[in-house]
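Protein: Pyridoxine/pyridoxamine 5'-phosphate oxidase
Species: Paludibacter jiangxiensis
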Amino acid sequence: MNFFKSISGQIQGKSLRQLVANFRNEYISNGIAESDLKENPIDQFEVWFNEAVSNKLREPNAMHLATATPDGKPSGRVVLLKGFDERGFIFYTNYSSRKSHELEANNYASLTFLWLELYKQVRIEGIVHRIPPIEANHYFSSRPRGSQISAWASMQSQPVNSRHELELRMEDIEKEFSGKPVPRPENWGGYCLAPTKVEFWLGRSNRLHDRILYELQADNTWTKQRLSP
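Structure follows.
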C-alpha cells in the first residue's frame, strides 16, 4: 500500500513525530535465488547497477560513505560513485575534507547503495586507498569547468564567513585560469574502496527480506552465504 494513502486519514490533529512509527510500505519482489548470482560481488553489483540505470532512477550512483575516527566515532555522508572495476569502488573528494582525514587515519570504511524503487540495497565494507594521481588527473579533466574551479575555491569542511566569500573565491580562480585549462589541485583526488564484504539485500513481503553476503577469503576467492533478515 502507498504510504501517503495509508496515513492520509491519520494526519489531522497529529504531528509527524507521532505518526512516524506508522510509515510503512510493503515490498513485493521475486526474491534472490543463489543460483542466479555471479561468483564475484563486483560482477553482481554491475548487474544490479545496470538495472538501476535502465530503470532511469535518479542518481543511481549516489552512495552513503561511512567513515570513523581511530577511536570509533563515526560520520557519514552521501557521495557519488565515479567508477568500479576489479579493484573496487571509486569516488573523488578534497583530501583536506573530514572524510579524507578520517580515511587517512582509519582506512576501513563502508558504502551503501539504496535503490528504493527496486527494493534493493547493497552494503559494502573494505579497505580504502588513494588512486594514482594520473587517474585522478584524467577524471578531473573530464569534469565541467565550473566544478573544476569550485574544487580550487572550496576548502572543504573548513569554516567560511559567508556565501559571498565563496563566490569571490570562485571569481578569483576564474580570472586566474581564464583562457587556459584548470589543473587538478594537489589536495583533490580519488579513493578506491577494495571490498572485503558485500551484502545484497532485496525487500520482500512481511519484512522477510533476502540477504546474501559475499566475503573475501585469504586466497582471494569469495564465499556466499544467506543471512536472516
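Remarks: The chain has a mean pLDDT of 92.
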